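Internal ticket - ligand job 353, magnesium ion:
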Amino acid sequence: MKATIAVLPGDGIGPEVVGQATDLLSHIAAKYGHDFEFVEGLIGGIAIDETGAPLPPATVALCEASDAILLGAVGGPKWADPTASVQPERGLLELRQHFGLFANLRPVKTYPALVDHAPLRADLLRDVDILFVRELVSGIYFGARQEQGDGDDSYDTMRYSRDEVEQVANVAFRAAQGRRKKLCSVDKANVLASMRLWRRTVVEVHEEYDDVELEHLLVDAATMHLLTRPGSFDVIVAGNMFGDILSDEASVLAGSLGMLPSASLRADSFGLYEPVHGTAPDIAGQGLANPIGMFLSAAMLLRYSLGLEGEARAIEAAVDDALAAGLRTADIAGAGEKAVSTRDFAAAVKSRV
Ligand code: IPM
Ligand code: MG
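stdout (structure tokens):
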């Protein structure tokens, strides 16, 4: 198959992990007889430096002409001045919003090879397999806001419409139907009006999915349940900000934030694929980055945008095999385990595909 993939490396470790991912995808293309064209664009801090904008129009245009977007990460200390008029993160938010990518899928699972030196007790981590469905283009990230520079008052607004909740709830219920048929909806319905609408709407949508067991958790309780009974969750659906927070928390279950992939989708096959981790400026350029979150994001791209399930599984299996064979990047190396570089880990995955 022929496909055009927009490649946006961004900042920090973004370019390192994206470079390994395009390499891996080229290897997949050669092996399975596909023709992938990669077109590179600017986003984030580097885009601000080079064009003044975190999402230049040329980047939007090349994404529009592509079948899918592969993105590294954006941001870093260089652009972190809170009084700056523009932040690198805006580029990512604009990109998600421009393409209407309302459903952000973040799978989290534990790897048998890693549970023994995870910060949580191994017996809690057995068989953890959770799919987060995070609403990505509304909520407090996109509600009315007032930026006051260095003034004394500013606000953000958490707002949801019934349609917005319905469409993300539908994605979550359908995902649960294809898995263990359990959905946990996270909200703060005891305090926030927008979250009461969220809960009411999820309950209504549930009527069409009576084979799925639905549970509601308030977000504060959810943070605790995620650590005390992680194995009991199947699909978790949450609004934009709560989903952001809970997915970072859940990365502890997988052993490292570097392990987690994500897909940001809308109703058709177009999607944006990026690891959940950020730019990790402290380790950028040193060959220490864990490429797994990026590789598994590339696998999701093959699965959801290109319909190449076998190829997606080949990447996932190669990652599993490399971990089972004892290969570790620094972030997941336990006491006494030797860590390999980003490049060596990537080569080990590639050779196993
Ligand atoms: C994420 C990130 C982003 C978010 C930032 C970089 C804007 O934390 O994708 O989880 O908050 O959505
Ligand atoms: Mg986040």
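Auto-summary: The pocket of 3-isopropylmalic acid (ligand 1) is lined by residues 75, 89, 92-93, 244, 276 (CB under 6 Å). The chain has a mean pLDDT of 96.
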